[in-house]
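>> received
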Amino acid sequence: MCAPLRSVSSLKWSWTGGRFDLRLRLLPRAKVTYDNPETGKDIGGVNRAVLVLNQNYEPLNVCNVRRAIVLVIEGKAEMLESHPEWMSSATRAFPSPSVIRLMYLIRRPRPRVKLTRREIFVRDSFTCQYCGRQGHELTIDHVVPRSKGGEHTWDNVVSACKTCNHRKGGKHVHEARMALKIVPAEPRAGLYYTIERRLDAAIHADWHKFLPGLEPIMYRSTAGSA
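>> returned
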């Protein structure tokens, strides 16, 4: 299997949809095959996850193997850990990166947590904010109903079980004779916020020493809204 390898003409971080993305401007150059040099067998893996560290070893983002190898070849990053697979061109072979470190410091503001359905459930620990029940059948409730001028903001949305959501309906909390367990507020993005949201599977074993204390968020399946 072959995929085009292109050189980097520019590299920057951009703010997109509540997170920072590593943007590469690529130019055509050569082709690279993804093989194990010992067996000659094509193993793919170009889209495997690679942890990107800042120059000071601060975790920045997650990219794929193809982007990571371009950065290493162009001298913009160094490889700290590698996957078992190898990449080979017509003249050289090298390991597939698992962790890379940029050769210069990227300065960025602290990201803010994007207001989404699943982030509300994460903030509320998958718990109904009225009765305290935990479970999969959670909905989103507006503390001040939208029909009464309530906005869709962090301080006006909470997780609610279907029973409590139905009981409250379009009323204010006091009108429904209910009470909130905790006053809702915008959560603060943790140290690994960007990394956690880019992971689709378990953390690679060789990432742990660069991400001390990280516990991946397991998003539960949920249904319903209000």
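>> The first helix runs from residue 65 to 73.
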